[in-house]
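[User]
Um, tokens okay?
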Amino acid sequence: MKELALKYGCNPNQKPSRIYMEEGELPVEVINGRPGYINFLDALNSWQLVKELKAATGIAAAASFKHVSPAGAAIGLPLSDTLKKIYFVDDVKIELSPLACAYARARGADRMSSYGDFVALSDTCDAATSTLLKREVSDGVIAPDYTPEALEILKSKRKGTYNIIKIDPNYEPVPMEHKQVFGVTFEQLRNEIKLDDPSLFENIPTKNKHFTAEAKRDLIISMIILKYTQSNSVCYVKEGQAIGIGAGQQSRIHCTRLAGNKADIWWLRQHPKVMSLPFKSDIRRADRDNTIDVYISEDHDDVLCEGTWQKFFTERPDILTREEKKEWIAKNTQVALGSDAFFPFGDNIERAHKSGVEYIAQAGGSVRDDNVIETCDKYGIAMAFTGIRLFHH
């Protein structure tokens, strides 16, 4: 098939809409549902990300995409009991495959942003992964294949309308890509840069020059994620998964703050007070997500005030105080941080350090490199200048 008509473009008034190939056949097959324009943008971008993560690490990978940027991405490392609980998969009876673990991590790290996402899977979707997928609010999934049992589970989602796309894993696009803006055609060579090269970490201007094997892996993961994230962008990664992504901001300092806040929320969800919140048994997953988010924030009274807490809890929880949050966040360590270009100020490093960052990979080349290096040295952070920019628009 060379062409596929879509329901409409980015917005309902943008008709007609289609995807098509200038030469050859489309590398995708719609198995179920009717994906739209944004669905396919998310599907094709997220597929590239997970394919590259799998190639770089050798481990199954998954991504949760929203509006052409990842809300989460991860490789399939085993889940601890704590992560199973905060990702709401601790009640699943079926054994979680590496792919299912990757999906749980990608979907669970920033559950607020992942709501209504499009999912990409690096490997054949199995029953365990589809079981987790079915329970979440999601627009669709793209994978190289699906087991019969997985298809049966997914086809029952959203009253049979769930978007299921199969992609040819061997498809390679033409080297030149084109894009039209206001009737003007842009052309450029595809960004085929490989980010799993050990030489990326050879230029280390900081006093601390030691990167653990896990840190290098996580920095590579962060850079691959950034390659498919709208610029400006930064990405915090820990234990093989993104824990905070800041994307599309005009200021990279704001990106660092945004991603750092998300990383802090991910870590705070593991606080004993949060994990023991006495939720009512009939609370919806989305309401539980939002309640946790508000409880952790400075607006906690919005869910704890009299007459409101009864909607969510069996008893009124104690407040998680500012001091308790600060003390808990200080316990987060071994976080890796990647940037799509250079950091312009030491402020970025100051903020990153507060969220447990100990390893950084960035392009370098700013007029303020000396200030950034000095701030890294202040906190004992190991930083590599990769010389690589990863702008994505």
Q: What stands out?
A: The chain has a mean pLDDT of 96.
